[in-house]
């Protein structure tokens, strides 16, 4: 039973070491099956992104305490040494960040960063990696992929960079993709394109997606299950239809009512 | 009140062998008028030229063609004293609330800066005015001694709004004021803006890519696409019936409110 889930988080606690002991995450539990999308919603500061960083093993253990169990395909991640974790990040857990501008190094071309990522995780020659990258960029509907490979990050728009990131994920075919507010920085038209590519990643590669967003529209469109977070705790955890039809928690109801609607009555 | 006449603006170099051609322009002969106590929405995808137009109206970028008249006076021909008074009448709120405030200043200092620049006030009077402004935007007087890192994004945007209204301007350019906030704070800020417009009689140039926000706040909406205003309407609700592709794309990209109404992505 347990092994069927791609991601299984149990009793995840994160606290600050310095100063007064502060609990940032209180016993967070999540489970995510193959090819499913789990949405995490909540206002800023509720611990959504912190949960993602914890799963990726990116928290600084010198200043923070991390307890609990994080299992990827049944394998415990919390005891793994840094070297093994590095092999997992990118290969088995893909990551799409909120700010695509910060996710790329400004001093190298998009192509060289793409090729570097591919070659770290698989035995490919430069030419092979290059070819694969171009094909992948083509598949996320980016125009003229050859030219994009030679561009620097600042020469591409936010939506394009976000699609390049998804293209990298498509190549490495991770079991799990953590998408932390993937469309927040984008306008509505670009947002739809990025969501389209995520949907494709899910159906074509069977990837599971952990989708963090504060936009309930994105959640309604993409998620199968939803976890509502507030102040470092999961206050409601339900199927997406159940959550929208019959929100149990006071806070969820508030979130659902806060959406602006088309027309003046809102 | 504000007349924008045939304004053209292009980025990039112009040199002796190559004059700026029509295709270099990101704004192509844009004209519109804005009356007092009216909210004009500028709607469009990224790269449509909305923000450039906003900066031209603010007096930050001199247009290469056409002119901007504020109450009949040319914004860019004005010099010295007249320029300073015109500057006072047009204020701005930007999208990125963090980078539009000095992190070392307290909220009182931030809001008081325009008052210090334009009015001779005693320290006590200044304190009273900033207190009033803080309350006007829904913060408390005690927040005045805090610094930007102690505020959330929504609160900081309120401070930016307080600074913008401090001198009672006639026009405020709102450049995506709510795009970086979560849905709940978005609707709260939009409510605040609508309230201020009613109580102060100020005009807004509301730049956004969010068609829902535009429909909630605006009296008139201009849709921009690739440097041109392609659609101008007095009733935002009629946007839905517009045949323009730019408008249709934006409407089709609105995400569903309920998982049952999911869009088919591919």
Automatic annotation (TrEMBL), chain A:
UniProt keyword Lipid biosynthesis, yes or no: no
Source organism per UniProt: Saccharibacillus alkalitolerans
Localization, UniProt: Cell membrane
GO molecular function terms noted in the UniProt entry: ATP binding
InterPro entries named in the record: AAA+_ATPase, ABC_Ni/Peptide_Import, ABC_transporter-like_ATP-bd, ABC_transporter-like_CS, P-loop_NTPase
Protein name: ABC transporter ATP-binding protein
CDD domains given in the database record: ABC_NikE_OppD_transporters
Topology of this chain in the membrane: Peripheral membrane protein
Organism lineage string: Bacteria, Bacillati, Bacillota, Bacilli, Bacillales
Family: Belongs to the ABC transporter superfamily.
Limits of the ABC transporter domain: 1-256
Broad class of the protein's primary localization: membrane
Keyword ATP-binding attached: yes
This protein's UniProt keywords: ATP-binding, Cell inner membrane, Cell membrane, Membrane, Nucleotide-binding, Translocase, Transport
TrEMBL record, chain B:
SMART domains the UniProt entry points to: AAA
PROSITE patterns found in the cross-reference section: ABC_TRANSPORTER_1, ABC_TRANSPORTER_2
Any one GO molecular-function label of the UniProt entry: ATP binding
Superkingdom of the source species: Bacteria
SUPFAM superfamilies linked to this entry: P-loop containing nucleoside triphosphate hydrolases
Keyword annotations of the record: ATP-binding, Nucleotide-binding, Transport
InterPro entries: AAA+_ATPase, ABC_transp_ATP-bind, ABC_transporter-like_ATP-bd, ABC_transporter-like_CS, P-loop_NTPase
All copies of domain ABC transporter, residue ranges: 2-251
Protein's recorded name: ATP-binding cassette domain-containing protein
């Amino acid at each position: 039973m347990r092994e069927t889930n791609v991601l299984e988080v149990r009793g995840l606690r994160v606290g600050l070491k310095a100063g007064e002991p502060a609990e940032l995450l209180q016993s967070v539990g999540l489970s995510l099956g193959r090819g499913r999308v789990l949405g995490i919603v909540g206002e800023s500061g509720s611990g959504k992104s912190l949960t993602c960083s914890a799963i990726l093993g990116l928290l600084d253990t010198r200043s923070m305490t991390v307890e609990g169990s994080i299992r990827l395909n049944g394998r415990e991640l919390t005891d793994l040494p840094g070297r093994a974790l590095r092999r997992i990040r990118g290969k088995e857990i893909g990551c799409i960040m909120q700010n695509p501008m910060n996710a790329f190094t400004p001093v190298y071309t998009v192509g060289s960063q793409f090729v570097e990522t591919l070659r770290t995780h698989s035995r490919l020659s430069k030419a092979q990696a290059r070819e694969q990258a171009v094909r992948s960029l083509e598949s996320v509907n980016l125009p003229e992929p050859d030219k994009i490979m030679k561009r620097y990050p600042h020469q591409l728009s936010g939506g394009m960079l976000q699609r390049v990131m998804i293209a990298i994920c498509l190549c490495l075919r991770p079991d799990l993709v953590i998408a932390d507010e993937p469309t927040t920085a984008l306008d509505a038209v670009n947002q739809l394109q990025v969501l389209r590519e995520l949907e494709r990643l899910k159906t074509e590669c069977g990837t599971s997606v952990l989708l963090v967003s504060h936009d309930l529209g994105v959640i309604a469109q993409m998620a199968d299950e939803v976890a509502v977070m507030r102040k470092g705790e999961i206050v409601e955890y339900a199927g997406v239809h159940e959550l929208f039809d019959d929100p149990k928690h006071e806070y969820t109801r508030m979130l659902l009512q806060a959406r602006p609607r088309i027309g003046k009555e809102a | 009140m504000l007349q924008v006449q045939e304004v053209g603006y292009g980025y990039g170099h112009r040199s002796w062998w190559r004059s700026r051609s029509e295709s270099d322009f990101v704004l192509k002969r844009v004209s519109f008028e804005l009356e007092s106590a009216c909210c004009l929405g500028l709607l469009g995808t990224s790269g449509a030229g909305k923000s450039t137009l906003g900066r031209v109206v603010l007096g930050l970028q001199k247009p290469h063609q056409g002119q901007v008249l504020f109450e009949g006076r040319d914004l860019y021909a004005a010099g010295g004293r007249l320029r300073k008074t015109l500057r006072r009448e047009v204020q701005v709120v930007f999208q990125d609330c963090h980078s539009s405030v000095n992190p070392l200043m307290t909220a009182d200092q931030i809001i008081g800066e325009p008052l210090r620049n334009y009015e001779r006030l005693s320290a006590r009077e200044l304190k009273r005015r900033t207190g009033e402004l803080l309350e006007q935007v829904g913060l408390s007087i005690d927040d005045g001694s805090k610094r930007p890192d102690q505020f959330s994004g929504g609160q900081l945007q309120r401070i930016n709004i307080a600074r913008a209204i401090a001198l009672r301007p006639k026009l405020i350019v709102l450049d995506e004021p709510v795009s970086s906030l979560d849905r709940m704070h978005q609707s709260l800020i939009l409510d605040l803006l609508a309230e201020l417009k009613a109580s102060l009689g100020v005009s807004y140039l509301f730049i956004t890519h969010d068609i829902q926000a535009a429909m909630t706040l605006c009296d008139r909406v201009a849709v921009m696409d690739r440097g041109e205003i392609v659609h101008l309407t007095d009733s935002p609700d009629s946007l839905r019936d517009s045949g323009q592709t730019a408008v249709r794309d934006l409407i089709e990209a609105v995400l569903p409110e309920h998982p049952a109404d999911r869009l088919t992505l591919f």
